[in-house]
Amino acid sequence: MADHSKKPPAGTEKKANRRGAARLAAVQALYQMDIAGAGINDIFAEFESHWLGNEVEGDTYLPAEAAFFRDVVSGVVRDQKMLDPLIDEALSKGWPLKRIEAILRAVLRAGAYELQHRKDVPGRVVVSEYVDVANAFVDREETGMVNAVLDQIGRLFRGDEFGRG
């Protein structure tokens, strides 16, 4: 799991942790939908009753911000046809999204969705959070790719925050 030793500003820790848990759960849900072909309603029911804030296979999951979780998952599902070409464009040539591991596809889709639609969250926070989520599943080289791709997408949707170019 990613190192969360840096303390957020006072009063934001609980919300930040609940959002972080929602992001992790959203990526897991998107991964499950991609791999198993599960439907969104089944995923919502399973994650909200079994995963969010409960213990599963010996791991205790933080209570997640359920509305945030639902927004990210449903937004990715709704916008996937628009998000995937953006992610493809940001990936290195010769490595289309369909060749990327399913868990990384889920991370990139969720991060791209949030960069486009969740303006209430600073763009660099979105990138950092999804790099942390990716860190839970893959090695450092792949988290660097997540950082680079989401940074590029962040510049597209939020040039004022990231600086153009």
From TrEMBL:
Involved in transcription antitermination. Required for transcription of ribosomal RNA (rRNA) genes. Binds specifically to the boxA antiterminator sequence of the ribosomal RNA (rrn) operons. GO terms for cellular component: cytosol. This is Transcription antitermination protein NusB. GO terms for biological process: DNA-templated transcription termination; transcription antitermination. Belongs to the NusB family. Pfam families: NusB (PF01029). Residues 22-154 form the NusB/RsmB/TIM44 domain. InterPro entries: NusB-like_sf, NusB_fam, NusB_RsmB_TIM44. Gene3D superfamilies: NusB-like. It comes from Bradyrhizobium barranii subsp. barranii. Keywords: RNA-binding, Transcription, Transcription antitermination, Transcription regulation. It comes from the Bacteria. HAMAP family: NusB (MF_00073). GO terms for molecular function: RNA binding.
